[in-house]
Amino acid sequence: MRLIVGMTGASGVVIAVELLRRLKEIDSVETHLIITAGAELTIRDETAFDIFEIRRLADCVYDVKQMDASIASGSFLVDGMIVVPCTMKTLAGIASGYSENLLLRAADVCLKECRKLVLVPREIPFSRIHLRNMKELADCGAIIMPPVMTFYNTPTTLAAQINHIVNKILRLFNLPDDMIEWQSKTIRNVELGIRN
Fold this sequence. Notes:
single chain; alpha/beta; Rossmann fold
C-alpha cells in the first residue's frame, strides 16, 4: 500500500508524527511525505521533534515546491492521502482546485482519480466558509475527519486522545489499529448475563 501524508501548519502536528510512526511499523505500507513551511514552524513551536527525525519516518520525502514529483501525477498509483493537520488555507486550496504546491496537487490528483483523501482540519470554531469548503470536499468524495476528543474509551492522557485519532485514520485504510471499540452497557450486561 502507498500512502501520501501531508503535514500543514495547523496545530496538532503530533498527530501526524504518531501516524507516521505507526505506518512505519507496518511493513506493507510505503509512505510519501510532504511537509509545508508552516508545518515546520509548528513542529518547532509545539514539539521537541527534529524535522529530520520526522522525515526519517517516511519512505519518500518531497519538497512542497517539487511539482515534478511522482505523486503529482495520476499515473503514479497510490491508495490515498491524509492531510494531517489540515489548515483552513489548505482546505480552501483543495476545495477550489488551486494546486499551487505539491501538497495541493497531490490532493487534487487523489480527488480526480477517485482515491481516498482524508482531511484532518484543525480549527475551532468553524466559520461558514470553512463549513462550505468542507461540504464541497465531502461532496467530491473527501473524508473530513476533525480530531475530535473522545470520552467513551476513558482516556487519561493526551497521548491516548492522539492514539484514538490515529487509529480512526488507520481504520479508514483497513490497516491494523488498537482502537478500543465502544459497547453499550446493555450489550455488555447481556454478554455477562446481567439484567438491567
